[in-house]
Amino acid sequence: MNKKVMIISVVIVFIVAVIIACVNEIKVDNEIKLNKNDKTTKTITTTTNQERKDDDIMDGITLNYQSSIRIEKNGKVIYFDPYKIEGNLNDADYIFITHSHYDHYSEDDIKKVMKNDTKFVVTSDLESKVKALGVLEDNVLVVYPNEEHKIDDISFETIPAYNIDKTYHKKSYNWVGYVIDLDGVKYYDVGDSDVTDEFKNVSCDVIFVPVGGTYTMTDSEAARAVNEMKPKYAVPVHYGEVGSSTNADNFVNGLNDDITGVILK
């Protein structure tokens, strides 16, 4: 009798061990699948599987708020649409403005970053306003869509930025996005735009793309378009006042695995 009880006990222990092993294997397998399919949100300090030379592409880049981007490369500081700047930095060598809406052209914030010799690149509706800030005429370059320019050693082109079915950003306004070339790396600040043919045809290494919807493309529209464009890095912007951080997360999660989504902090 005792021998039978012992045999039964051994069998029960064996069965329990097998069940536990199977459960753990299923758990590990599910974790692997989750890690494989779940797109990780990255910041500029996160190590990626890109080569180090690609990681250097994102060094010196910050998002102040909304679409306000600061790039510091080779001892020069470039701003796109400075907005909600904290403190008086007065460190801008170049300021690029995409259009005249308050969250892109803010004179109070421009004054916080501009210096006496800051060079401005602006759309035609902003020329007189910028000069009224005391900027010398030689330091103001007025641009229109579909142009190529060079300031000092910075080459750039202007891309039309507009809405297709909305009236907030009409094509006739001649507002733009910028593709700037820094040491052979192309950075594309889209500006406020829907997914247009001109937008989709841009070749770049890094794209700063609006994802908040309402006034621009949505996060899903942006992700689908960027997947076709195939930049190395994609940075969601324009979700600070219209939209939310959820839009940024959705955008990053919608990117293909060969594109690194970067949420700047």
Q: How large is the share of residues in beta strands? A: 15-25%
Q: Which structural class should the secondary elements be placed in?
A: alpha/beta
Per DSSP E runs of 2 or more residues, the count of β-strands stands at 13
SSE series: HHEEEEHEHEEEEEHEHEHE
Helix content: 25-40%
Model regions low in confidence, pLDDT < 50 over at least 5 residues: 22-53
What can be said about the biggest beta sheet? 7 strands, mixed
- Assign the CATH topology of the largest domain: Metallo-beta-lactamase, Chain A
How many alpha or pi helices?
7
- CATH C-level class of the largest domain: Alpha Beta
CATH superfamily of the largest domain: Ribonuclease Z/Hydroxyacylglutathione hydrolase-like
Structure, described:
The protein is of the alpha/beta class. The protein has two domains: 1-33; 43-261, Metallo-beta-lactamase, Chain A (4-Layer Sandwich), CATH 3.60.15. Helices cover 29% and strands 24% of the residues. It contains seven helices and 13 strands. The strands form two sheets. The protein has a seven-stranded mixed β-sheet with strand order 7-8-9-10-11-12-13. A six-stranded mixed β-sheet has the order 1-2-3-4-5-6. Strand 2 and strand 3 (76-80) form a beta hairpin. Helix 6 runs parallel beside helix 7 (245-253). The chain is globular, with a radius of gyration of 25 Å.
